[in-house]
């Protein structure tokens, strides 16, 4: 009899506080390889807190609970170790890095995170392919990271990193916010391409993203807890009814 395969991500009874205020209160979640999970909820429900805790943001204090990633204790891994192990976070509000060119940033990011070293030629071929998929002009590479970028350009920059790094788990925090319909289509195509061989945790307010990226599971988060889990139909119910009917 074969041993049970370890979950990609397993969160058990997670409690998290910020400056003494409890934000996440007993959250449980399991993600298997190849699954797309969407988390919905009002502002302040703890969605972005969860994303930041998973990536190791120092401002968030885990007061109780366990998280394992690929069978290992996540809390024993530093932020860079989490990235090298295959975890990726797309920020809700991507930071601007003046003076750092996009091309250099992407090349060094891939080199630092991925164990398999690409030659300069292999990286250029890969970069050209992914930029073409996202309809990003080559002039993008000489600009400074997110400096003067529109909202859509910032989000496409995040998805370009996702496609280049090819993580095992993508945590995407409101990647769809501020996008017009064309940018949303391109970003969604990138997410779908990345999710084929990995796991994905989508944090979103909007059904429009889930029309293009079909989730296997939808979770509703209220007051730091997941109060209901369902399939894609749950997101439609939330869009139609709001969150009041799910209050516990």
Report on this model:
The protein starts with 8 loop residues before the first strand and ends in a 7-residue tail after the last helix. It is built from 8 helices and 12 strands. The protein is α/β, with parallel strands linked by helices and 248 residues long. Helix 5 (151-165) runs parallel beside helix 6 (181-195). Strand 4 and strand 5 form a beta hairpin. It has a domain at 34-46 and 86-242: Rossmann fold (3-Layer(aba) Sandwich), CATH 3.40.50. 35% of the residues lie in helices and 28% in strands. It has helices at residues 47-55, 79-85, 102-113, 120-133, 151-165, 181-195, 207-212, 232-241; strands spanning 9-18, 21-31, 36-40, 61-69, 72-73, 87-90, 97-101, 144-145, 169-173, 199-203, 217-222, 225-230. A 6-stranded mixed sheet has the order 6-9-10-3-11-12, with helices on both faces. The protein has a 4-stranded antiparallel sheet with strand order 2-1-4-5, with helices on one face. The protein has a two-stranded antiparallel sheet with strand order 7-8.
List keywords for this structure.
single chain, 248 residues, alpha/beta, Rossmann fold, 6-stranded mixed beta sheet, 4-stranded antiparallel beta sheet, 28% strand
